Amino acid sequence: MTPVAIVGMAVRLPGAPDLAGYWHNLVTGVDAVTDVPAGRGLPGGRGGFVDADVEAARFGIMPNSVAGTEPDQLIALQVAAAAVDDAGGERRLGDRSRAGVILGRGGYLTPGIARLDQRVRTARQLVHTLAELVPDLAEDQLSAVHSAFTDALGPDQADAAIGLVPNLAASRIANRLDLGGPAYTVDAACASSLVAVDQAVHELSSGRCDTVLAGGVHHCHDVTLWSVFERLRALSPSKQIRPFDRGADGILIGEGTGVVVLKRLADAHRDGDRIYAVVRGCGVAGDGKGASLVSPEPAGQVRAVETAWRAAGLDPSAADSIGLLEAHGTATPAGDAAELTTLRRVFGDGDGAVLGSVKSMIGHTMPAAGVAALVKAALAVHHGVLLPTLHCDDPHPALAGTRFAPLREAREWTGARRAGVNAFGFGGINAHVVLEQVPGAAPVAPPVVTEPDRVLRFAADTTDELAALLDAADSDLRAAGPGRGRARLGLVAPTAKRLALARKAVAKGRPWRGRQDLWFSPEPLLADPGAKVAFVFPGLEADFTPRVDDVADHFGLAKPVVSTNGVGRHGLAVLQVDRLLDTALRRLRVLPDAVAGHSAGEWAAMVSAGVHAPSEVDGLLDRFDPASLQVPGVEFAVLGCAADRVRAALPPELVVSHENSPMQTIVCGPAEPVAEFVREFRAQGVLCQVLPFRSGFHTPMLEPYLAPFRAFAETLTVHEPAVPLWSATLAAPFPPDEAAVRDVYLRHLLEPVRFTALIRALYADGVRVFVQAGHGQLGSLVDSILDRQDHLTVAASSVHRGGLDQLRRVATAVWAEGGDPDFAALTRRPGGVPVDLSAGLVSLGPAAAGLLPPRRGAAEHPPVAAPDPLAGAAGQHPLAAELNDLLRETADAASAVLAATRPERLRVSLETMPYLLDHAFAPQREGWPDDTDRRPVVPATTVVRHLTDAAEKAAPGARAIAVRDVRLHRWLVAAPATDVDLAVRPAGRRQLDIALGDYAGARVELAERYPSPPAPWAVPPGRTPTLTAERFYGERWMFHGPRFQGLTELTAVGERHVLGTITAPAAPGALLDNIGQLFGLWIVETQQRRRVVFPVAMREFRFFGDEPAPGTRLRCLVRVRTVSDTAVDFDAQLVLDGRVLAEVTGWRDQRFDSDPDTERAYRVPERNLLAKRQPGGWYAVFEQWPGLASRDLYLRKYLSSAERDQYERLPVRARRHWVLGRIAIKDAVRGWLWDRGAGPVFPAEILVREDGTVTGCYGFALPDVRVAVACHGELGAAIAGTDPSISISGGSPATLVNPPELPPRQYVVTWRENREQ
Amino acid sequence: MSSEPAGKATAEGPVFEAVSVHLRDILGEYEADDVEITPDSSFHEDLQLESIDLVALAGRLREQYGERVNLAEWLAEKDLDDVIALTVGQLVSYVESCR
């Protein structure tokens, strides 16, 4: 085969707006799969999504025709043009009549077609159905509905209809880029992109084309496409795409576009092109009638791969034949298994080669999947970096038989750089491409990735919630989108260290403003309606090295000419940079409420305020020759002290020109006395610097040179300021009338800059956010003036980084203080027209009002009667009569529609659910009067029971046969009592979505009879558990009381399973709860730490029979799927007499902080202490529950309701130590009691009053005892006695050190029990 | 005479500790471990100090060690590149040399 070179590439893929972004994500392992973004018209779920825009003007597209054009055509055009740019521009295309375009594209219901379908078919269908349902509607009413519906779709663009012809995805590129070779799309399902590449290689080999743009395009997140894959059972029910993981359960759908520019290798060499990689071989083969249309088949795959390697003249089974295989890797069990079989057959076994699937990061991009994989492999070959694959936590067993293994992290590619790329399509079409490093290529320098700094934003209503939000894995935080809420945190360039710092800053609850690129504001400054934002514009400073060219490029503004050669040019450059950043900040929607400037910066402020028109100023400056500017040859010296001290020592030749801050003053005068003055002050230890420019601005010495400035002042028109303009001469706003403005302008040149007074005046006026709109160190002056007064200073330019990245920091900082900057302005191409990728449900909006006559009858909804709900309802509800006819065959669904409008209310209390006393988290003394202190909680499985009951009630006669996607959002607590709405909504055929308030929700599937059960799982070999059922409950390894205790035999436990017998208890949900308890045994038997677990989600329960009567004995086998530090997933079967009665898959428990030190007190708090007794009789407790959620579990065991009220009233930052102190006190007192022979004492029985003194709670007789407490770092220490005292400080010699898993810290503790000691 | 290598003495000596404390204070950090200060930390690049911060540091060191520690004089002898590359260790050595 003629070798073909990849000379240009471009992509738009989830999380990657361009090639650089894609590479960054690939190297760092970014998971770009997200929840469905708002407005996409999908019912929910997860996938890979892109935002797109098109540079309409660049391609000669009318912006108003963008809406009527199929989005993928515009995106393909944009990406193809970017690929050509990447290849070196259009001149590199050579003879355009011999340049082609071949793109993979599927025939799915893409958004453009879907919107046309809505306009043409759905609008008619709507009116048709409406006329049938309500026969007395008049023609004009129906026509009004039709119009309202089509109007809601936006203007009809019949002339843009050509934009909906599917092959235009390729043809439009040829048209806009003027390419005369063949341009067409190919559809080979998921193999489309590589089939396109194969075609391109043929075009090049045959000589018909010299250049081909090849790739794939797929932008179709349509309900129909999702539904197709759901019906094929290919969508991941766990909503995670985990290629080659043992637990892989399907795909998530992605979207995207990629284009590569291909030339014959010899031509690329001749033209001196940059070559990413060489295509050595391509192979395409079909499955024939091998298997079914939807099952992957190794035979066809093997032939495709072998053909490609044969074309390359290479032996795939040779030892070092391949370093990387970018697999099709769809994460469907059948697909992964077939592909691994193929790999084993072609490449044999061995080791050392890397297997990847980018689908783990972006989802399955369908026809574009091949090009996403090809670009990934080409980048890996080019940079010599082997790339990671996500979510392959428990590798597929068949991997062991191949020479491949996935990577967790990127690493250097040391061996021969040859890669294979797979793309296999439904229907049995398989393609493979062999890539190789360009022969004789010089080693590529280590990749330098230059891409925008990432910005992470988090918001919550309270600091506590923010802390809870941050209490997640770094990778989750990196993938999270900005939330809403008052308390905000923004982080730029997030490293693990910075994320740790962010958590710490939030835990402390104090604002953090800018160091380490972190901004956190628990009480955002701009949330106060009186708070203002000021722009302060810098003037001339000693160092002037702005890096703002990228800002000018991005916003399409003139680049400043940066020069410090002469005060004229320097001043001009400062003004240009100030004004550029002023414009950029405003485009970023960072807007000033006041503007001011330092020295020459005041002129920029005048333009910013609109006092002088920018165009007029530009015209004047264009005619101004900076070299001609005459100024006195006097020098400035910056002195590191206050103006008073300078003036007191000032010789007559010198004057103060700038009062910069209490720590900085500038003097001006002739060189000799300036030097003398500097010597004198230095000797006193004052930092001094003579500035590298001379002028005499802001001193009377400028007077003789004033003429040209006066000319400026007199020429320029003075307008009313649009934003208040402040003067540094007056330290007040400019006066209103024109003559006075000109006067202040001239005084500013001759009088000192009173910057200190100006900033204080702005602060007094309410300015809390100071944006340095220019380059320099003005911001640090502001900080030095305002010192500890609450404010934010942020600079729009920094020597440390490029301009756009610095603007990201400004936006982040302002956002954290409650501002609303437009972050997208930093990524959006200027002139880019957004492309709408949605085709969701159409809402008529306000236009709906009055279209139809109001319904007859009462507004009251009738009760739905069983067993024939429609017959009962028909008499009372006007719509029900029509529904009765229309929907008779699906009576249950119709009933559900009615039920959905009338949620049932569930009373959750110990009166209605007395059995919850046996499902209470915090044990208390018998007869304890306050049930809230016990924290009785509705078990997850009882929630599930309520959901199935509600579903069966809504569809009488039907049985709940499955419950899917059980989500448990928060604890549902029964004391105090609470009322929760049970909302039922139909969700497709025989399915109901049921929500229990905002506590929990799930989808319930109904049927008339139970399906036949699957076979019981085989039981793997295991050992006898250490614990018996009796000890398991007796020692309170499980907190459950008798009404929830069902485990009667603990049979066996193994590395990944546990087997036991459950005797069904009577309490609702208790049977299924015992599955979780049995899993709890596995945790206790196999894990050492973090053994406290609670369920958070269950993917699916399936039922194959009615719940057995209480007392029935069932066998239960739990199979553990995945175990991480934070969560555990398992499946389980309940088996009755050899028949599976219920099966659960994807039961997820969250793990909470616990270790052997804390566990005894957690389980049996009345007999154990969290604190440890220390020599000398004091008690020390370490905070070994760093997470907020864990802290909550511990504090519930210790605090009574009165104490919890105190806790809630505390400022967030004080809570940690307060809890630690309360625990220490209670344990010191309980230890003191036990020393004196007391029996069990629950922590809540010791009431610690607000003032820290102790007494007995609810009748507990506590002898007279006093306590002292101290907290420091993670240590709480307390002592009980007649007159005790205790204190802790950090340092050595240490009394105690933190346990190993806590931050390294030492404590010196001093104490005494009684004052006399 | 101490037989300790000079680097170690600087890294762990009381002057380094004192300078670190002042720097953290000036940087406004909450806690010691929020910013890593080592003898190799540069004022400009690592700690991102601006000129006004040096003024504050000079004042503090003078207050603590007396007039012999004169950052103003010491810095005046350096050219701009030297000042930009200045490290905490260099400052500590200077302060130690004044005592």
UniProtKB/TrEMBL annotation, chain A:
Active site: 919, 1073
Ranges where the Ketosynthase family 3 (KS3) domain occurs: 1-437
Region (C-terminal hotdog fold): 1024-1158
PKS/mFAS DH domain residues: 884-1158
Pfam families xrefs: Acyl_transf_1, KAsynt_C_assoc, ketoacyl-synt, Ketoacyl-synt_C, PS-DH
PROSITE patterns in alphabetical order: KS3_1 (PS00606), KS3_2 (PS52004), PKS_MFAS_DH (PS52019)
Residue span of region N-terminal hotdog fold: 884-1014
Gene3D superfamilies recorded: 3.40.47.10, Malonyl-CoA ACP transacylase, ACP-binding, Malonyl-Coenzyme A Acyl Carrier Protein, domain 2, Polyketide synthase dehydratase
Family annotation (SUPFAM superfamilies): FabD/lysophospholipase-like (SSF52151), Probable ACP-binding domain of malonyl-CoA ACP transacylase (SSF55048), Thiolase-like (SSF53901)
UniProtKB keywords: Phosphopantetheine, Phosphoprotein, Transferase
Protein name in UniProt: Type I polyketide synthase
Lineage per the UniProt record: Bacteria, Bacillati, Actinomycetota, Actinomycetes, Pseudonocardiales
UniProtKB/TrEMBL annotation, chain B:
Pfam families recorded: PP-binding
Superkingdom, taxonomy of origin: Bacteria
Organism placement in taxonomy: Bacteria, Bacillati, Actinomycetota, Actinomycetes, Pseudonocardiales
Entry keywords, A to Z: Phosphopantetheine, Phosphoprotein
Keyword DNA repair: no
Protein name stated in the entry: Carrier domain-containing protein
Gene3D superfamilies according to UniProt: ACP-like (1.10.1200.10)
Classification via InterPro entries: ACP-like_sf, PP-bd_ACP, Ppantetheine_attach_site
PROSITE patterns, per database record: CARRIER, PHOSPHOPANTETHEINE
Domain Carrier: from-to ranges: 13-99
